[in-house]
Design brief:
By secondary structure, the protein is an all-alpha fold. The chain has two domains: 115 residues, EF-hand (Recoverin, domain 1, Orthogonal Bundle); 240 residues, Alternative oxidase (Ferritin, Up-down Bundle), CATH 1.20.1260.140. Helices cover 69% and strands 0% of the residues. It has 16 helices and no strands. Helix 6 packs parallel to helix 8.
Length: 386
């Protein structure tokens, strides 16, 4: 039977938990995870799609129409030298690539055709798949070396790498590059992989900010591509059905068009943009609590929950400590019978000395006649403080 003090303590802890944003945040993530799993469980393969088995993938993006429409081009203003260094690196690479690839010249003249867009997308996606894999590998080895948990970064980064690779495979369903283009890709990837790996070992914050700015440019690129389709400048894309691979990956209907696929890819890039800016703001040992990653498959749900569970445990510990301090009336680090008597009087709760002595006796594990913090946490977690 629950005593008056037990009821009072539980009400106090419950109220503190309700006021804690981490608790509310965890419940929202849990609800999103349940909906995501329910949606994935309800998806049945159509007969003509049975040959494509994508169940092994980490990512399983599901964007609603409202979410696709809400994607906007954004820019995070640099605030310190790391931000400026990463931003200027992206601007330099973007300007150089636009110039040497002919993109700047063709867009000025309105002469970007479907093959030009596909060539650009294919090359950029071969590069975009590198950062997530490098960062995930470095953090994985870091976790092994230090023998501690990563708290939700690794799977997010690996999911980003896989998602960018899916973009490449979708584009390859539309155009197959020749040997010269493949050679350029191999050379470009070798240079970028070496540079990014070294930079991530030196300054991960710079690298995540760099990817954040790079994804800002990707959103701009895909927005221009979609605008060109809407303006009837790309008639082949305007009338082309979405390839089977893209429809199954994004769970699109059979009548989906290529434009619908580009909308999905742009939403992915916006997600990577916001996530990497978020990572750059975090300290390396802080948990990843980015909600957007719940759009991914079961590994991502596990990943985000691992970060949030750490946050929840910290919040629960804070609530327990505040409750203990509120009962420790004389601030001597212990809860005595006199402290409990004072607490009952403050809350106008009826009591008798026998009940107070019994409560202290049950919680007192070392027999000193008082309740220390560890004893209080243990008895509260066991629900035996009555």
């Amino acid at each position: 039977m629950m005593t008056p003090l037990s009821a009072m303590l539980r009400r106090q802890v419950f109220q503190l938990r309700l006021q804690n944003p981490a608790r509310q945040y965890y419940h929202s993530l849990w609800a999103m995870s349940v909906r995501s799993k329910a949606n994935m469980a309800g998806e049945l393969k159509k007969p003509e799609e049975a040959s494509l088995d994508l169940n092994h993938l980490i990512t399983a993006n599901r964007w609603s129409g409202d979410e696709l429409a809400a994607v906007k081009t954004t820019h995070r203003e640099p605030t310190d030298w790391v931000d400026w260094a990463s931003y200027m690196t992206v601007r330099t690479l973007r300007s150089s690539f636009d110039l040497f690839s002919g993109y700047k010249f063709r867009t000025t003249l309105g002469a970007m055709h479907e093959r030009d867009w596909l060539r650009r997308v294919i090359f950029l996606e071969t590069v975009a798949g590198v950062p997530g894999m490098v960062a995930g590998m470095v953090r994985h080895l870091h976790s092994l070396r230090l023998m501690r948990r990563d708290h939700g970064w690794i799977h997010s980064l690996l999911a980003e790498a896989e998602n960018e690779r899916m973009h490449l495979l979708i584009a390859l369903n539309l155009r197959r590059p020749g040997p010269v283009f493949r050679g350029i890709v191999i050379a470009g990837q070798g240079v970028f992989l070496t540079w990014y790996s070294l930079m991530y070992l030196v300054c991960p914050r710079y690298c995540h900010r760099f990817v954040g700015y790079l994804e800002e440019e990707a959103v701009i690129t895909y927005s221009k591509l979609i605008d060109a389709i809407d303006a009837d400048q790309l008639p082949m894309f305007s009338n082309m059905k979405a390839p089977l691979f893209a429809r199954q990956y994004y769970n699109l209907p059979k009548e989906a068009m290529v434009r619908d696929v580009f909308l999905q890819i742009r939403a992915d890039e916006a997600c990577h943009r916001d996530t990497n800016h978020f990572f750059s703001d975090l300290k390396p040992d802080q948990p990843n609590t980015k909600v957007d990653h719940l759009r991914k498959g079961h590994f991502q749900n596990q990943n985000v929950h691992s970060g949030v569970l750490k946050l929840q445990r910290e919040a629960q510990s804070k609530v327990m400590h505040e409750t203990f301090q509120s009962l420790d009336h004389d601030h001597d680090g212990f809860i005595s019978t006199d402290d409990l008597r004072w607490a009952f009087q403050q809350h106008d709760t009826p009591f008798n000395d026998e009940d107070l002595d019994e409560m202290v006796r049950k919680a007192d594990r070392n027999g000193d006649g008082k309740i220390d913090y560890q004893e209080f946490v243990k008895v509260m977690s066991e629900g035996d403080f009555h």
